[in-house]
Amino acid sequence: MTAARPLQVAACDRSGPQHADLGAFVDSLCGAVADEWGRAGVGGVQILEAELQDGCLLLVTGPGQSPLDRAAVKTFLEQHRQPQ
Questions:
Q1: Whole-angstrom distance between the N-terminal and C-terminal Cα of the chain?
Q2: Is the pLDDT of residue 17 over 90?
Q3: CA–CA separation, 81 vs 64, rounded Å?
Q4: Mean pLDDT computed over 9-38
Q5: Are 76 and 39 contacting, i.e. CB atoms less than 8 angstroms apart?
Q6: Do 56 and 13 contact (CB within 8 A), yes or no?
Q7: Model pTM score
Q8: Which of left, alpha, beta for 41 (phi over 0: left; psi -120 to 50: alpha)?
């Protein structure tokens, strides 16, 4: 019997003093999510939802083809920006 793979991995955290800047915080959260997918045997991800507000980042991801990194999060946030 093989272990079931997750359908989604979600993470939410707030930037704190342990992060030098917002970029380091995003890198840290991306790394945690990527590690979770790696344990499931999945090499790439797809960002399904992302929100950055008041130093708090929510990431919801599914299996995909791309690495999860700061640039991917930035691109997703720019493409899905809500009109003011």
A1: 50
A2: no
A3: 22
A4: 92
A5: no
A6: yes
A7: 0.86
A8: left
